[in-house]
Design brief:
alpha/beta; homodimer; four-stranded parallel sheet; seven-stranded mixed sheet; 13 helices
């Protein structure tokens, strides 16, 4: 792969509390990595995007690829009713690999138009269809993880697996996924209500034995938490139930974490587990607002997530906006000691914060993977009177008016049709 | 004006609790009014929009036209700081009528691309520039109200008026606005902190004497409310301060109403005053969440508003989404007796609820003004498996993907460039 440099108006965050900006800056890329960021023209070939807003690729830490088929619908319900009535029937359709290929094709095409470059995605219980998702995402240029979902209890007939078959299919899925390099497998128990203790224990063993990361859901909804307490009366709490199966590691992503006890926060901190903050979904499903300020103060690893289709947008720019809005309401209505998240903080979470799960990803620093997104600013965003930071703020708050112009993942240009 | 009929997939609300839909329905329009809504082909000329989602024009009850120039910026502050640092300097620029013509031209052009057909807008204190706004909105095809803002205290030098001059300019503005027919004047004291008692009293007299409607702000932010209490120690509360100047009428719109006492709610109910619920702005400025369920139960008149640029979107579809999300958070975090707003309820508020301020507006019922919006659904929204209601829900939750195809106001087709 050759060296090249992208020229544009750069904005990124190395730390949560402030933006770095460079007008007419050059990002030099060599072998898929950033080698320098400078206002001096390098000797490499120049991809001239002068005047365009250039941001690091964003990382979506939690997204249900099959649910894209009903994104934006069924938003007048809470989690458990919503799963039963809408989500499970939609996911059952992915037993048909022809349907899966079509649906996942649309999903990948839509995702290309967003600033996301990395993702950790749920498929369904269906091994073949989930391998198709890996194939399609990889071919589209994305990097990240895809998991075959495990469910062996409390699920409709069309989505419940025999425990042994679920374990065998997971092992088979991992073996067969060696055909793909940019999209890797991730162990994906749906959540405790859907998985027997024996299944969870075995999945913990597989993850540990094969060094495979893990993703699941934690403390999203109060009824869910009560249900988990009744299913795991032996556990101190929801998080420690996962922990007892060796599922909380520094290669684990837990989505939501809205209603965490102090013990649970301490446990996730001790394990180095990532939190996928999903405010759009948490607002839509009336789940509540996660104490992100508290997570950050405690030094937990946090990233942002669309959680499609509890989330109604594929764009992490929209999620950033909801993360700020939700933190303001939490501050106003629930806990006035936790000051609202600022723009640079939510941008950091969506870029370098969540990106760290995937390696050196989400910043314009030498040595980082060259995940670079060029935004196509609407008329009026880019005038002589606007700073680069103001333009980024408009990109977040008016994300609807802002398509992606092009993006590079590890230095490779994705083809946005 | 001739008769014609628009054919499409119709959705509207006659009452808040349910949608009316008609697949391949015909709306017959004569002299700017709807004469029939039927699934039978009428004898009139047909504007064939088969397969398109067709909704009533939406009414924006509160929007600051001059603030469009910084929409989507400066969202990390609360109301009073935000006014001082960003809003007042931006509005001061409208003393230049050349600047105003350009800025208001961009505003109207952008507004044409949204489903809004009616609006009640704030201009600035500047009489000439505000008349330009009326001219531009009228020529673009909109109906509604525009107010010259009054401010004679606690404002920066560039925006503070002499009391007598403010009164004289208001009278002059009203006289000169007789040149326009579709956009009418509205008395617009900014809010109590910006207006002396004498000014408010005189504005109440003008409104009453000339039968002109009124718009202002009420109970948006807690610091603002404390300030009003110190400015009007003689008043029971913020609402009754307005009332003492005869400013609460059934032709008055009060924006926000986030922190209302029971007395204030009863007073607005007794006066028939409209509430402009502005959830996007209330989230952005950390103001809080208005008790809309309570307003509806009490039978108050409520509509939706973008409140640009506290609000960061010109589209009432986005505001509907935020109204639902905000009501869910209020229910979850503040008052579990007030159940969240459903989709048909927020749609009703944005169409027939707010529309009633402008007459028979916002529904597909015979006798209603023919304000009709045809949406340009994104790929995937319109398939054989989606109901009209589901398509409308996607339009709300994925408003970013949904431009307006065309709109008719009182039967006249607007030209969306």
């Amino acid at each position: 792969m050759e060296s090249f440099a992208i020229k544009g108006d750069l904005i990124w965050t190395e730390k949560p509390d402030s933006f770095m900006t460079m007008h007419d800056g050059y990002i030099t890329v060599s072998d898929g990595r950033i080698t320098s960021v400078s206002s001096e023209r390098p000797s490499a070939d120049i991809v001239d995007r002068s005047g365009c807003l250039v941001i690091p690729g964003l990382s979506d830490l939690h997204i249900h690829a099959p649910q894209y088929v009903f994104m934006g619908m069924h938003m007048d319900e809470e989690l458990l009713e919503w799963l039963e009535k809408h989500t499970f029937p939609a996911e059952a359709a992915f037993s048909d690999t022809g349907f899966a290929r079509e649906a996942y094709g649309s999903f990948a095409e839509a995702l290309l138009k967003t600033p996301t470059t990395r993702l950790s995605a749920f498929g369904t219980i269906h091994e073949d269809s989930t391998l198709i998702l890996m194939d399609i995402l990889g071919k589209a240029g994305f990097h990240g993880y895809v998991g075959k979902v495990n469910m062996d209890r409390n699920s409709p007939d069309s989505l419940v697996e025999d425990t042994d078959e679920s374990i065998a299919s997971t092992r088979s899925f991992i073996e067969r996924s060696s055909a793909y390099s940019s999209i890797r497998p991730i162990i994906t128990p749906r959540f405790i209500p859907s998985c027997s203790d024996r299944l969870l224990k075995e999945l913990g063993r597989i993850a540990s034995g094969l060094s495979i990361p893990i993703q699941s859901h934690l403390d999203e909804n109060r009824s869910e938490i009560e249900w988990v307490a009744s299913l795991c009366p032996w556990a101190r709490d929801y998080a420690s139930a996962y922990d007892s199966f060796s599922l909380l590691t520094d290669r684990t992503i837990m989505a939501h974490c809205v209603w965490m006890t102090d013990d649970e926060i301490d446990l996730l901190k001790a394990r180095g587990t990532y939190i996928a903050h999903s405010p759009t979904s948490n607002l839509n499903l009336s789940s509540g607002i996660a104490p992100v300020r508290h997570f950050l103060d405690k030094g937990l690893s946090v990233g942002l997530a669309t959680d499609v289709a509890g989330g109604s947008s594929l764009s992490l720019l929209t999620v950033m906006q909801d993360a700020v809005k939700a933190s303001k309401m939490r501050w106003r209505l629930q806990d006035d000691s936790a000051k609202p998240l600022g723009l640079s903080e939510v941008f950091y979470l969506a870029s370098k914060g969540g990106g760290s799960f995937f390696g050196s990803v989400g910043s314009f620093e030498p040595g980082f993977d060259a995940d670079i997104v060029i935004l196509d600013e609407a008329e009026g965003f880019r005038t002589s009177c606007h700073s680069i930071e103001e333009r980024l703020e408009m990109a977040v708050y008016r994300s609807s008016e802002l398509p992606v112009k092009e993006k590079y993942i590890r230095g490779i240009r994705c083809t946005c049709s």
